[in-house]
């Protein structure tokens, strides 16, 4: 119990301390007009209140990640708490804040455009591929996972296939609506259900009498029943609750609806901290109510959705437990919708297809949904592993973009470079060792090869950055994004 409550307290303290430092390092300008105000189009660029932006950001980034990930991370034991707390404060929240604010300074640009601007145009194509792959996997995962949850609380005659189709229908309808109608009207209600159900689970856990494992000198070890190594697997299993590249695809959506730069810390950094709190509660509940072997068998039998069902009913009873399950269901449905919405705009930008009519919107949207529908027939665990790797590769790219941004502007760039370098090494080790990659296993050769590859990538990144800084125009757009929108280009006015 002490670790759970202390961990939540540290997350909150991190928001008010390290979050404030990151905000100061970025150098916000509360007087600067935002893309929502200057580029208002009534569809994607729509001014919305701080509260709505925050709840949209939370629901966009959450999905089942801060619940399913920590449930599977609980297999490793209390050591999972460390990555949630440290990762969230020093990596995930920084990642979300920086990408959201850089996008806000660049007319609400998505990650591929930002990568092109700060890392070079050739990088844009690679980032586009990774981003679209990630969003397709996210959208598919966030169709499959809520469908399984809904199936667990609905009559058998409805069927899993019918539920999947109904979710896609909802996505299509919401995709063609302006953002303030598709998200602004519905998400506050979804958010209320999520927050209330999470608090209920947390309070019920504290008074349930079940022993909540603490992080001690005796529990800092690997309890995984399958013997899976903590590194790098844990850092991919718990992603959305600590660090997630998917968030880099969502932050630009909210950067297009924010009306003041000083809202950024609450909206971007703060909502990631909230996600960390959710992750802590579900990791603690999973460790408290089930031993590792039982938890592993439940995950294998019905994915983490079965654990969500059991935890909710055990702690809250049938009626309130079902309401809590609904609270979990709204997360992936909202994130899935946001994933497909982002995927549509990124693909449309890449192919230069204007999204100014329903016909053009559906021309891009329908093929994406058809591909995703086919992917729903894949094994969920395999889909989740591919999603995890693509997710953290995207996080690395986002952190490198943020590092280059801070470096060019003479700011403290270590705040993004250090977590970026760590996760770069992790993703290289993962793809070299895992069955979805080169199957080398976790050998000395794997770790050495990953170190050489990671250092090589960072060397190219560093030398290209030095060259870019030497050639950059001190009066140009790259170093003066704090100036009003339209200062450097009439087409952006």
Core attributes:
0% strand; mainly alpha; 493 residues; single chain
Structural class: mainly alpha
Largest beta sheet, briefly? none
Name the assembly state: single chain
What's the helix count?
Answer: 19
Indicate the radius of gyration in whole angstroms: 22 Å
Q: In percent, how much strand structure appears in the residues?
A: under 5%
Helix content: over 70%
Distance between the termini: 54 Å
Number of strands: 0
Give the mean pLDDT. 87
Topology (SSEs and partners):
Blueprint: H1 2-16, H2 18-26, H3 35-38, H4 50-62, H5 65-73, H6 79-105, H7 111-119, H8 121-152, H9 160-175, H10 179-182, H11 187-206, H12 234-237, H13 246-255, H14 264-289, H15 292-351, H16 358-375, H17 380-408, H18 414-433, H19 444-471
Question: What do you see in this structure?
Answer:
52% of the residues are buried. The chain starts with a helix and ends in a 22-residue tail after the last helix. Helix 2 packs parallel to helix 6 and helix 8 crosses helix 15 (292-351). With 493 residues, the chain is mainly alpha-helical. The model has no long low-confidence stretch (mean pLDDT 87). The protein is built from 19 helices and no strands.
Short description:
By secondary structure, the chain is mostly helical.
């Amino acid at each position: 119990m002490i670790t759970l409550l202390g961990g939540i307290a540290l997350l909150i303290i991190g928001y008010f301390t390290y979050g404030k430092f990151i905000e100061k390092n970025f150098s916000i300008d509360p007087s600067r007009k935002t893309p929502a105000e200057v580029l208002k189009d009534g569809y994607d660029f729509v001014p919305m209140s701080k509260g709505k932006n925050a709840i949209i950001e939370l629901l966009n980034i959450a999905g089942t990640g801060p619940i399913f990930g920590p449930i599977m991370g609980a297999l490793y034991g209390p050591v999972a708490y460390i990555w949630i707390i440290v990762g969230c404060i020093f990596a995930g929240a920084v990642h979300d804040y920086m990408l959201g604010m850089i996008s806000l300074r660049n007319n609400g640009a998505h990650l591929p455009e930002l990568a092109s601007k700060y890392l070079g145009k050739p990088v844009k194509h690679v980032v586009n591929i990774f981003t679209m792959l990630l969003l397709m996997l996210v959208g598919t995962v966030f169709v499959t996972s809520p469908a399984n949850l809904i199936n667990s609380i609905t009559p058998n005659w409805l069927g899993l296939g019918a539920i999947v189709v109904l979710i896609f229908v909802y996505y299509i309808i919401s995709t063609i609506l302006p953002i303030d109608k598709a998200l602004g009207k519905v998400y506050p209600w979804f958010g209320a259900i999520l927050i209330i159900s999470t608090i209920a689970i947390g309070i019920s856990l504290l008074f349930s009498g079940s022993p909540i494992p603490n992080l001690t000198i005796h529990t800092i070890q690997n309890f995984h029943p399958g013997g899976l190594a903590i590194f790098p697997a844990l850092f991919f299993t718990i992603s959305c609750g600590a660090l997630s590249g998917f968030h880099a695809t969502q932050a630009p959506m909210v950067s297009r609806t924010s009306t003041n730069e000083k809202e950024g810390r609450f909206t971007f950094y703060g909502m990631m901290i909230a996600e960390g709190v959710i992750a802590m509660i579900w990791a603690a509940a999973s460790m408290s109510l089930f031993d590792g072997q039982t938890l592993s068998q439940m995950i294998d039998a019905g994915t983490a959705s079965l654990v969500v069902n059991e935890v909710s009913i055990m702690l809250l009873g049938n009626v309130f437990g079902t309401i809590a399950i609904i609270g979990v269901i709204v997360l992936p449905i909202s994130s899935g919708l946001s994933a497909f919405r982002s995927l549509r705009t990124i693909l449309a930008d890449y192919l230069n297809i204007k999204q100014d009519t329903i016909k053009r919107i559906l021309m891009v949207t329908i093929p994406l949904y058809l591909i995703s529908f086919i992917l729903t027939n894949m094994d969920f665990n395999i889909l989740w592993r591919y999603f995890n790797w693509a997710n953290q590769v995207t996080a690395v790219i986002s952190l490198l973009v943020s590092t280059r941004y801070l470096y060019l502007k003479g700011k403290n760039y270590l705040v993004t470079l250090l977590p970026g370098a760590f996760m770069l090494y992790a993703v290289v080790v993962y793809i070299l060792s895992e069955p979805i990659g080169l199957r080398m296993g976790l050998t000395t050769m794997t770790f050495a090869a990953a170190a050489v590859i990671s250092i090589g990538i960072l060397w190219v990144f560093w030398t290209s950055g030095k060259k870019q800084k030497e050639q950059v125009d001190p009066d140009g757009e790259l170093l003066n994004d704090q100036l009003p929108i339209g200062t450097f280009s009439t087409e952006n006015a």
